[in-house]
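notes to self, project folder thing:

trying the whole complex as one job this time. last attempt i did each chain seperately and stitching them together was a nightmare. two parts in total, labels are on each line so i dont mix them up again. if this works i'll redo the older ones the same way
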Amino acid sequence: MNEQPISQQDRRRRRGLIIFQILMYGYLLMMFVIQMYMYSQRDW
Amino acid sequence: MSKSISMGARTALDDHHDLSRQAQWQADKWMIGGSVFMGTAILGLIGLPLFMYGLMLQVRAQKIGLSVRPIIVTLIGYLVIIDAALNSFGWSLDMIANHTLLARVFLQGWGNLFDAGYYWHYNELWIGGATAPGEKAWEIALLPIVFCMRMAAGIAFLQMKRWGHQWLVVTCWFGVVIWIGYVANMTIFADVRYSGVVFPVVGWWLYDIFYITPFLAIPYLHTVNREIFSD
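result (full assembly):
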């Protein structure tokens, strides 16, 4: 009876979480790459 | 085993419940002991085998059919508690006990190897401890608010309490704020923090990636069947 809306909601939640993880890990990776670039340019 | 179903008589279900509780507590005793050691960082290597032994006891109890806590809940709960404890001890040492031999050896040792924020002009500000721009503000904001809350949430989560699950969700999202801000701070002040250290950039990331991992709990916490947690 209520299966459809729940699974829809579930699907949306899962999609949201995947997008969140891509953004989050993408951000961290970007910061790492920026720091590595700085490392290559500077005399640390 | 009693087959009576009269009021007050013990049933097989009661026995199963008692055995399960005993097995869980037996495993938890080892894991709590291990976590206490690991939470101090310095004594971490002593804690790991104790924790693994407790985990093995829990897996064994699960295999013989006892109703113990799901392994993923155990791993996330203890990971969060240990993470919060490590941060609390390290930063408390830096904020309050920054002139002790322990702090000067370990924090400055860490600073010399990976993060000059803990080496450059160490103990030269009026407040003492790390002098990296922004570092003290993070310590003041996160120690009494996030990490205390996180440890309480982790304990309640291990007890399978509903509020433990809810507050773990809250504090894991705090973790997102912390790491977005902290890593941005590291990058903006990279010239202060990586200058002259033994392992710049890669060393810091290798070490800190373990602190970042509690993020992994967010998808689980949002998709788990909440009915397994009770009031």
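what i see at first glance: Chain A touches chain B through 18 residues (CB under 8 Å).
need to look closer tmrw
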